[in-house]
Design goal:
This protein is mainly alpha-helical and 155 residues long. It is 82% helix and 0% strand. The longest helix has 36 residues. The chain starts with a helix and ends with a helix.
């Protein structure tokens, strides 16, 4: 009995760690998103180029953190609470769609050098960043459902 309680306590501790990592990477990504968006109208300069590269790196770290830490933790059955599993099962297909969009944005912009040959992407960046902002907002709402279930603060 005591070992079962300890095991459950350890699992909850691990899930809290994963949530903390997710929220930290998400906050960093949103901060860098805002920094990049504040560069509008975009120009082929070092500041915009650097902001774009930092944002792409944070974006991938965030997507990986959510996907490979939190959702793998749930899918590997390390999370046993039914409300968490129910919410995760319901929203996971939508999370996958947002991850695909994040990866497409990153693939398009991660190796861009606005100072050289990639100036034509500068024209597309504004619209792509706006679309990505909507996708990130959707993803955050979905993640918050999982976080609410895991912390017992479901809405």
């Amino acid at each position: 009995m005591v070992s079962e309680v300890n095991a459950a306590s350890e699992r909850r501790g691990r899930s809290r760690e994963k949530l903390t990592t997710l929220v930290q990477t998400r906050s960093e990504t949103l901060s860098l998103y805002s920094e990049l968006a504040s560069q509008r109208p975009f120009e082929a300069d070092e500041v915009t180029n650097q902001a774009l590269q930092e944002f792409c790196q944070a974006l991938i770290d965030y997507a990986a953190s959510a996907h490979f830490q939190l959702y793998r933790y749930i899918s590997d059955k390390l999370e046993r609470r039914t409300p968490v599993l129910d919410v995760a099962d319901k929203i996971y297909p939508q999370i996958v769609q947002t991850t695909d969009s994040i990866l497409r944005f990153n693939d398009k912009y991660q190796d861009v050098n606005l100072l050289n040959d990639d100036r034509e992407l500068l024209v597309l960046l504004d619209a792509d960043l706006s679309s990505l902002g909507e996708i990130l907002a959707e993803r955050i709402q979905l993640e918050d459902q999982v976080i609410g279930a895991m912390t017992g603060k479901m809405h």
